[in-house]
Design goal:
alpha/beta; 434 Repressor (Amino-terminal Domain); 6 strands; DUF5753; Helix-turn-helix domain-containing protein
Length: 285
């Protein structure tokens, strides 16, 4: 599995913040000490803060080694581990060639290294579970008129799905509102539902949240919770215009996880959802 540069940047920033705090230094003090160690370099409080908040996307090796000196990291193996982390954080993800479509690519990059993906979707099916025909219809419905751009966006969406076929594929649990199924284009609906039924397995579960439930905890909109083996979770909340908000605050993540727990409890069970999908497919056929 290719390393996620975004995840590595999160980890490096978190580690450097931890090292500074364990050294008992403020950002201003750390910058002053770094300036003493490397007087020919530009060191100031804002630079330390930018590194720790990932505003500075690439930490130069020389700068990293100065900080490790300041923070008292002398063990060669530890230093090399941090240097490797910085090198991985500075690479480009597979999506880099599609940055005109994906922008910074933060979500897609994090998704590629998640160990578990939990999502609630209201208006459409999760991108990882879409057929090519459904994805194409949704992209066109979003106002994309250039067929070349439609093709590239579909290509990216299908490439994202490769992670579900890996030996270390993340566990995926999707709760999908009935609204999304009512909005399935008639010419792709049957194939899309067959696909949902076919891909399910113990590590990939789908639940349907039927209209008869009425008001519920997830009515504010779609979101995805990304969990990682060795890093804090993150939430991606969808926004108008196709963009999204990446949430990393622990308290906010807990709120979203609570909402997801309530939504999962309100939805049909996995087995009842399968029955529901089969019944809907029979109606279409």
């Amino acid at each position: 599995m290719a390393a996620s540069p975004t995840l590595r940047r999160r980890r490096l920033a978190r580690e450097l913040l931890r090292l500074r705090e364990e050294a008992g230094l403020t950002a201003k003090q750390a910058a002053a000490e770094a300036k003493k160690a490397a007087p020919d370099k530009s060191w100031f409080e804002a630079k330390i803060t930018r590194i720790e908040t990932r505003k500075l996307l690439r930490v130069k090796d020389a700068d990293l080694q100065v900080l490790l000196d300041v923070y008292g990291v002398s063990d060669p193996d530890q230093r090399e581990a941090y240097r490797k982390l910085a090198r991985e954080a500075a690479t480009s993800g597979w999506w880099y060639g599609y940055r005109d479509i994906l922008g910074a690519g933060t979500y897609v990059d994090l998704e590629s290294e998640a160990s578990r993906i939990r999502t609630y979707q209201v208006q459409h099916l999760p991108g990882l579970l879409q057929t090519e025909a459904y994805a194409r219809a949704m992209i066109r419905a979003g106002g994309v008129t250039s067929e070349e751009e439609v093709d590239r966006r579909v290509e990216v969406r299908m490439m994202r799905q490769h992670l579900l076929t890996r030996l270390d594929a993340p566990r995926l649990w999707a709760v999908i509102d009935e609204t999304a199924f009512r909005k399935l284009p008639s010419d792709v609906a049957a194939d899309q539902i067959r696909h949902l039924l076919m891909v399910q397995r113990p590590s990939l579960r789908v639940q349907v949240l039927p209209d008869l439930v009425g008001p519920h905890a997830g009515m504010d909109g779609s979101f995805v919770v990304l969990d990682f083996k060795s890093d804090p979770s993150a939430v991606y909340a969808e926004q108008v215009g196709g963009g999204g908000l990446l949430i990393e605050d622990t308290e906010q993540i807990t709120i979203y996880e609570t909402v997801l727990d309530h939504v999962q409890a309100s939805a049909l069970s996995v087995e009842d959802s399968r029955v529901w999908l089969e019944a809907r497919l029979n109606q279409l056929d």
